[in-house]
Amino acid sequence: MDRKRVVIIGGGIAGLCAGVYLRKQGFDTEILEMHTAAGGLATAWTRDGFTFENCVHWLVGSREGGPLNGLWKEVLDISRIRFHEDPVYMVLEKGDRSLTIYRDPDRLERELLAKAPGDARAIKEFARLVRKFARLRFPEGDSLPANVWAFARMVPYLPVLARYGKLTMADFSERFEDPLLKGFFSSGNKDLTVVAIIFALAWMADGNAGYPLGGSPELIGLIEEAYRDLGGLIRFKARVEGVLVEGGRARGVRLAGGEKVGADIVISAADGHATIFDLLEGKFVDGRIRNVYETYKPFPSYVQVSLGVGADLSVEPGFLSVALDQPIEVDPGTRESWLTFRVFNFDPAFSPPGKTSVVVFIGTYNDEYWRSLRDTDRARYEAEKRRVAEQVSRVFETRFPQARGKIEVVDVATPSTVVRYTGNWHGSMEGWLLTPATGFKGLPPVLPGLEGFYMVGQWTSPGGGLPSGLMTARAVSRRICKDAGIRWRTP
Predict the structure, then answer these.
(1) What range does the domain containing 177 cover?
(2) CA-CA distance, 262 to 280, in Å (whole number)?
(3) What is the residue-wise DSSP string for 80-122?
(4) Of 425, 444, 468, the domain-final residue
(5) What domain count does the chain have?
(6) Bridge partner list, 94
(7) Do both 454 and 471 map to the same domain?
(8) What is the DSSP letter of 61?
């Protein structure tokens, strides 16, 4: 076969997976990544001996033989990852009360009924849904008989998906009277469909959502290693500023500085809005695309406060959400009544012995405030970062008195940081928020009037997350083979 050259914009998880798949199909590939390392939003960084995770909470597909496990094996040697399985998903605290959200739905139901017996009906409904969806298997792979059987088994789930897919987390929270249960469903992304948390707990109940020890660096490093071992090329500090188009077909890209990189096929694994409206100057859009970018709601951006703590917090929950006596003002228009602490006491790679890495994410849609502040008043920008960090630190030391006076490192990332390092639209953490309005159907990976150009990643798959990078990369790689008249070989 005449080897076709593919240029992939972006070295995040979708770009890396696309590179692996296409190398396995015989394409020549080069990934162009604007940052100094692969991963995109799936990243972590180190400060004075502490590593602060930016992405991974769990990985769907962690269980041998479980859903998605086989697909992950197509792009990395997943057997080299050790997974941490905590029986507790998270703990919620409000005053002297606490509520434990267990991964096992039977144990979860018993806990909730004991702590909030007045909400028995809604609790049983929720636990029943988690049990039901823990048994659901989506079609995957290339076996037609297996996929037909998988589609057939999905039929009984469709009415339930349709019904609960119309409810947001805020809607579902109204079924509860207990303030902790209300907080579990209503804090955070209130517009997120409740199906999202049902699926998350269902994957955990199935033992198929473990945390990969080593976090993002471990996962991304193994995919990058697989890609390089296949002969794939990757270039860092290579910012793409435009897509070269001739005669209605993508012919390559133009880098910052003017260098032109030719290609037979171009894939964008970069930000969707920047791809369509900047790199392609909005020339290849239709009514549906405009409607999506005008009406769909993205995930919020965030302020991430990371603490390197000189204390052993191994007896504490790994995921703890605390109701605040007084809300924290994050920025104009954003006040947060809950703080969620991700206590990495289970990952020895993230801190020196006897110490602990702690991360707090605070969602905000006011990315404009942080980006403008950094660009126009750097001193005030740094002061605002310190102000938020001080508020978080006070709450942390109140809840964790054994760590009082032992915070050794404070690191703050803002929406401006996210935009500078990933280029993600509005500094969004995951692309399109999965809401009743978006539904589950993905967006087309091609643009009207443009041949030889494809898109992968979270902006083509509502709900985002690591699996969206893997699955969209696989689907688009198959489509590229079909469009090129090449027989797809199952990896």
Answers:
(1) 101-206
(2) 16
(3) G--EE--SEEEEEEETTEEEEEESSHHHHHHHHHHH-GGGHHH
(4) 425
(5) 3
(6) 97
(7) yes
(8) T
What strands lie across the sheet with 356-364, from one edge to the other?
A: 97-102, 88-94, 319-331, 334-343, 356-364, 301-309, 407-413
Is the sign of the CA dihedral 415, 421, 425, 429 positive or negative? negative
Q: Take residue 266 and report the two structure tokens written for it.
A: 């171009």
Tokens, residue 72: 């992950």
> How do 334-343 and 319-331 pair as beta strands?
antiparallel
Q: How far apart are the first and last CA of the chain?
A: 18
- One domain, residues 130 and 185: yes
CB 312 within 8 A of CB 355: yes
Tokens of 54: 């930016």
Residue 380 to residue 385: CA distance in whole angstroms? 9
pLDDT tens-digit series, residues 364-407: 999 999 999 999 999 999 999 999 999 999 999 999 999 999 99
Closest CA to 422 of 322, 292, 274, 261: 274
- The pLDDT tens digits of the residues spanning 285-317 come to 999 999 999 999 999 999 999 999 999 999 999
- Give the whole-angstrom CA distance, residue 181 versus residue 321: 12
| 326 & 398 share domain | yes
Q: Residue 458 in 3-state DSSP? A: helix
Q: Are residues 410 and 309 part of one domain? A: yes
- Which amino acid appears at position 285 of this protein? V
Find where tokens 């409000």 sit.
94
DSSP-derived secondary structure for 21-42: HHHHTT-EEEEE-SSSSSBTTS
